[in-house]
Design brief:
By secondary structure, this protein is an alpha+beta fold. Among the domains are: 39 residues, no CATH class; 166 residues, no CATH class. It contains nine helices and twelve strands. The chain has a five-stranded antiparallel β-sheet, covered by helices on one side. A three-stranded parallel β-sheet has the order 1-11-12. A two-stranded antiparallel ribbon has the order 2-10. Helix 9 links the parallel strand 11 and strand 12. Helix 2 packs across helix 4, helix 2 crosses helix 5 and helix 2 packs antiparallel against helix 6.
């Protein structure tokens, strides 16, 4: 069976059939189960790489969804209520299927926009209302249907990490909530909070600050450390992978923004095992270099 003859893209059944047939041609000692195989970019020669570095959060430590995102949202909502937001927002329930990485948030109009590779707007969401690319409302907001590069980082904010997905959902949830509750203010003003009016832009600022606070003051980390099994997925093969790198003469390092106290607890949980290996008495023995509080990406500036 030729992979080129498969439909584009191949179905899971077609791909499994192809892999099975192709693997039968290999000597048994080289075959592995599908979920244990590694598919690499052939232009990268791993023999030439001497140092292998890993981040911790969402790399070695994979957070369980939607438990982790729900925790982040609940803690953030509590901070917003302390700032004077209505208590009704505490009823917001996380939808893990709402957002994907790469969405841009328009702070002027309160939209999440989906762009193509050239910056043209394919669709957008205002609250929970989907606005398609041919909709008159979209043309009113974006007459040329494009996000200009000069506005990215100013008017637009990109959710480019997994940490940003619950924040994208929460922003749209709040826009939806206030649009439902508002007493028609013109322009970008969407709701009164006491004597102060909230704009889409200030709503973003408040949300960003509260999300930042729960990470900086350790609130979310303390909650995770209180139930590591609930929030972090443990893979028994992690220690084996790291040992194999070092057994083949490679250097391994850990570079994380997390503080040492949090890194120490999480990595101890991930690498604790009933099996004992010579030279691996602590999780720190799996790495040649360990850097915490790295302040990525700030150290490049």
């Amino acid at each position: 069976m030729d992979i080129n003859s498969l439909s584009i893209p191949p179905t899971e059944k077609e791909l499994e059939q192809f892999v099975t047939v192709e693997s039968d041609r290999l000597p048994r000692k080289y075959t592995r189960e599908i979920n244990s195989r590694i598919f690499v970019n052939r232009s990268v020669n791993l023999d030439n790489i001497q140092y292998f570095g890993f981040d911790m959060d969402y790399t070695l430590a994979v957070y369980n969804s939607p438990a982790f995102e729900s925790l982040q949202i609940n803690l953030t909502l509590q901070r917003l209520v302390k700032r004077g937001y209505p208590k009704e927002i505490l009823n917001i329930v996380y939808n893990p299927n709402f957002a994907v990485r790469g969405l841009f948030l328009d702070k002027k109009y309160g939209n999440l926009v989906h762009l193509d590779h050239f910056g043209f707007i394919m669709s957008c969401v205002h609250g929970f209302n989907v606005i398609h690319k041919d909709d008159e409302k979209l043309l009113e907001w974006y007459p040329d249907k494009i996000v200009h590069p000069t506005e990215i980082g100013k008017r637009y904010y990109c959710f480019d990490t997994l940490f940003g997905l619950p924040e994208a959902f929460l922003y749209s949830s709040l826009v939806h909530f206030f649009e439902q509750q508002k007493s028609a203010n013109e322009g970008a003003n969407i709701q009164e909070k006491g004597p102060v009016e909230i704009s889409f832009w200030s709503l973003f600022d408040d949300l960003r600050e509260c999300t930042h606070e729960i990470h900086i003051d350790g609130s979310i980390k303390q909650a995770i450390l209180g139930d590591l099994k609930k929030y972090i997925r443990k893979d028994e093969r992690l220690g084996l992978m790291l040992r194999r790198f070092r057994e083949h003469g490679r250097k391994v390092f850990l570079l994380t923004n997390s503080e040492f106290y949090y890194t120490n607890s999480v990595m101890e949980y991930l690498l604790q095992s009933d099996e004992k290996y010579v030279g691996y008495d602590s999780w720190r023995d799996y790495f040649d270099i360990i850097i915490t509080n790295a302040c990525k990406l700030r150290f490049f500036l």
